[in-house]
Amino acid sequence: MIELLSPAGDFEKLKIAIEYGADAVYAGVSHFSLRCHSGKEFDYETFNKAVKYAHNKGVKVYATVNAFPFENQLPLIESHIKKLKEIGVDAFIISTLGVLYKAKEIAPEIDIHLSTQANALSSWDYMAYRDLGVKRIIAAREATLKDLTKIKEKVPEIEIEIFVHGAMCFAYSGRCLLSAVQFGRNPNKGSCANDCRYPYVLYAENPETGKLFKLEEYKDGTYIMNAKDLCLIEHIPEIIKSGVIDSVKIEGRTKAPYYVGVVTKAYRDAIDEYIKTGKCECKKYLNEILTTKNRGLTEAYIVKRPYEKDDTQNLETSLTTGDWQVSGIVTEDGGHFMCKYKTYPGDVLEIVLPKNVKIESCENEIGKIYRENGKWLLKLNKIVTQSGKELSSVHSGNLNPIKLPCKLPYLTFLRKEDK
């Protein structure tokens, strides 16, 4: 059975990933992780609770220890590995040989997953890492399914994990120093400033005269390094059919909770449909994914080599775009939601449910929940806070839980199309 692996940038996202169908999640305490500056993620106390929560749900947790440490950080990373061992994570995600060696010494009982940043591309790489005790390799982004099939034939003992969705780095296997040059922030120590997303102005210089000529494709600059987002939802059938992929991974520890839920559920449904029926109407799941913010989508290199692709860049804008807005998320008591967008009396919101839950219609003075054209909808007649105060509208800055006409499952999303 192929594993669905989802991002868990914090405790709430971990819960969402699990409720929307993930078999495993990956996360990290804010040390020695490649997301340590863009998202604070967990501290040791909350991470310990999160791991216990996941294990109680039958879900594995893989800890990211994938930064590239310098000599003066070695005592700290040794201590970090010991704490993660005590917490009881299911695997370490590691990029470097030194950290791999130390992790095997400190916690030989915990599996090692080799990070995509180690750039394992051939069966020789896989054999070498197998002999060093690696259980799983997260394939280099540049690898094709054809390559991985050949590798699996030669090194069947190694599990193979691939990214199927999320942001792409323009650099070779993510090895970029652009942020270090411009801001003194080292991407390979977890502090990428996403410089590839910025617009750049290009100049051509005449060395004899010193004259600069401005080269410009768009009025606000040229996004020469801006990659589209990866999306392999329509390739799920051939990925599973290949029989060589053990885990499919969704990028996005710093993405919004809605992204984690919707994308996880889309891939869960696509995987389940194909395994159950031998086919997948994956287009409908792609349409769900398109309700999340994105920079444009590409299949990247899983079926073609990099030099055969010409649609992996978005040269117009680095901003994530989309027509759907998340209006709210249901609180733990099930009777309220926290507003995430402007909402008014009379609004009709679509209900996005976690995996494998059922609800029923209801109607009262607060509003009604009903099914129409295959979708569950919520109409709010009035907006009433938990304390009973009626509002003319509610916006994302309002931290008062808003009453629902009847209970919905915890972590259900409410959304509307913002045309």
From TrEMBL:
Record InterPro entries: Peptidase_U32, RibuloseP-bd_barrel, RNA/ubiquinone_mod_enzymes
Keyword set, alphabetical order: Hydrolase, Protease
SUPFAM superfamilies per record: Ribulose-phoshate binding barrel
Molecular function terms from GO: peptidase activity
UniProt-listed PROSITE patterns: PEPTIDASE_U32
Keyword Magnesium applies: no
Residues in coiled coil: none
Top-level lineage group: Bacteria
One Pfam short name: Peptidase_U32
Gene Ontology biological process terms in this record: proteolysis
Keyword Nuclease: no
Recorded family membership: Belongs to the peptidase U32 family.
PANTHER family linked to this entry: PEPTIDASE U32 FAMILY, TRNA HYDROXYLATION PROTEIN P
Protein name stated in the entry: Putative protease
